[in-house]
From TrEMBL:
It catalyses: N(6)-[(R)-dihydrolipoyl]-L-lysyl-[protein] + NAD(+) = N(6)-[(R)-lipoyl]-L-lysyl-[protein] + NADH + H(+). This is Dihydrolipoyl dehydrogenase. GO terms for molecular function: dihydrolipoyl dehydrogenase (NADH) activity. The keyword NAD applies. Its EC number is 1.8.1.4. Belongs to the class-I pyridine nucleotide-disulfide oxidoreductase family. The keyword Transcription does not apply. Residues 11-333 form the FAD/NAD(P)-binding domain. Its cofactor is FAD. PROSITE patterns: PYRIDINE_REDOX_1. The gene is lpdA. It comes from Halomarina rubra.
Length: 474
């Protein structure tokens, strides 16, 4: 069908159907708005299709294979064979189920779905281009718009993604054979998660990182636990090395790196995965036509209602800045929709949890001790090592700790840093504690099931109060 340039009207146009956009669209529709959600590629965005979900599917599958093959001390003797094509196809099934669910939920809530690429024509109109010969474009006039176009991987100069030798995280999550060796450029959370996955699948993994430590942004003692476990899995780290160029060499590649003194090193591998961060997709939607401004990093700056400098145009998720996380995108989408519908919604970033699905996992929320001090609190810290947790020991995963940071005079919980099995789940209790204004006493007085990992949270709070039972007190 030739669509031509037909103009339609809607209360709210949402551009991009990732966790920011589809949540905004559903919530606005629930609140009675006429909503059009435009997506150019796949419902669910990066998160469901190429990010959170596929990477976690591989985290699970690789851990299962690795644990089964390394459980001799538990009396289990197995040598699992990896069928990567089958693993990838299972992952695709999980993704399809979720993306299909998003589409159904949007329709069930009355959201009008439109496939195509949206760009602003002016501050009340977007143009949606449809792919394919003769498909043309159409215009949508809107009262409110939500920009949720997400992010793309940062490209290192000379390392253009080709899907064969130089992989993006998206390429790495679609392989049909386990690479014999992999050079990972970047030891941020995506690089570390995928290094762990491939090391567990039997790949010889080398990581080169420009900075001098893995997982920049996390405290040293947290990052150290993960790095040391990755080393046990065979990951070889080289810090202070910037990837500068590569060439094909036999069946694989040689990557050259340079340190701060200009010394060059060479690393051979079958493939390289480049994971050095992500940048916002704000340069392809003609924001200028709508008068929406971006900062020097390309992010759209927003207020606590998720509004851009143009009051009726909102920006949510990765385009609106760090932390680039799916749950932060969804919360912003929800607040934008509620504010558009006249509800008294506002954003509060005090308790945004973050997780890294390495081995062990990391879960953090709120303030570190140093940040608490900087902000004028008088922090007190309590910690429980996982080696003192009966459940962690019985899972044979006793590395790491739960740390709780609180304000000593008031007892209010301010933050937590967890590096432990299931840290991504454990952190939820402390996010709730911060959100509710709970004190150390509240957490310590809450009866936790024995034996569980979550007892470590109670014990860390008791430790901060000076009366932990299973660890020595400060
Ligand atoms: C490997 C990897 C693992 C990750 N793991 C996690 C994790 O475990 N937990 C977590 O919280 N986060 C994780 N993330 C980050 C997470 O994926 C993002 O923070 C999240 O997807 C951001 O959501 P969003 O809605 O802002 O954008 P996206 O999910 O990027 O969605 C944007 C959508 O907009 C569409 N779009 C772009 N331009 C246009 C246009 N002009 N017209 C129409 N549509 C358009 C795109 O096609 C896309 O579907 C991971 C990311 C990666 C890459």
């Amino acid at each position: 069908m030739v669509v031509g340039d037909i103009a339609t009207g809607t209360d709210v146009v949402v551009i991009g159907a990732g966790p920011g956009g589809y949540v905004a669209a559903i919530r606005a529709a629930q609140l009675g708005k006429d909503v059009t959600l435009v997506e150019k590629n796949a419902y669910g965005g990066t998160c469901l299709n190429y990010g959170c979900i596929p990477s976690k599917a591989f985290v699970t599958a690789s851990s299962l294979a690795h644990d089964a093959g390394n459980a001799e001390e538990m009396g289990i003797h197995a040598d699992p064979a990896i069928d990567m094509a089958a693993m990838t196809s299972w992952k695709d099934g999980v993704v399809d189920q979720l993306t299909g669910g998003v589409e159904k939920l949007c329709k069930a809530n009355g959201v009008n779905l439109m496939e195509g690429t949206a760009t602003f024509a002016d501050e009340n109109k977007v143009r949606v281009g449809h792919d394919g010969e003769g498909q043309g474009s159409e215009s949508i006039e809107f009262e409110h718009a939500v920009v949720s176009t997400g992010s793309r991987p940062v490209q290192v100069p000379n390392f253009e993604f080709d899907g064969e030798h130089i992989l993006s995280s998206r390429d790495a999550l679609a392989l049909d054979a386990v690479p014999e060796s992999l050079l990972v450029v970047g030891a941020g959370y995506i690089g570390m998660e995928l290094s762990t996955v491939f090391a567990k699948l039997g790949t010889d993994v080398t990581v080169v990182e420009m900075l001098d430590s893995a997982l920049p942004g996390y405290e040293d003692d947290v990052a150290r636990v993960v790095r040391s476990r990755a080393e046990d899995l065979g990951v070889d780290f080289h810090f202070g090395e910037a990837a500068s160029e590569w060439e094909e060499m036999g069946e694989g590649i040689t990557v050259r790196t340079e340190n701060a003194d200009g010394e060059v090193s060479e690393f051979g591998a079958e493939k390289a995965l480049v994971a050095v961060g992500r940048s916002p997709v704000t340069d392809t939607i003609d924001l200028d036509a709508a008068g929406v401004e971006t900062n020097d990093k390309g992010f759209i700056e927003t207020d606590d209602r998720a509004r851009s400098n143009v009051e009726h145009i909102y920006a949510v998720g990765d385009v609106a800045g760090e932390p680039m996380l799916a749950h932060k995108a969804s919360k912003e989408g929800q607040v934008a929709a509620e504010h558009i519908a006249g509800e008294p919604a506002a954003l509060d970033y005090q308790a945004v949890p973050a997780a890294v699905f390495t081995d062990p996992e990391i879960g953090t929320v709120g303030l570190t001790e140093a940040e608490a001090e900087e902000q004028g609190f008088e922090p007190v810290v309590g910690q429980m090592p996982m080696r003192a947790s009966g459940r962690a020991l019985s899972m044979n995963e006793s590395e790491g700790f739960v740390r709780v940071v609180a304000d000593e005079p008031s007892g209010f919980v301010l933050g937590a840093q967890i590096v432990a099995p299931e840290a991504s789940e454990l952190v939820a209790e402390l996010a709730l504690a911060i959100e509710m204004g709970a004190t150390l006493e509240d957490v310590a007085a809450t009866i936790h099931v024995h034996p569980t990992l979550s007892e470590a949270t109670m014990e860390a709070a008791e430790n901060a109060l000076g009366h932990a039972i299973h660890t020595l007190n400060r």
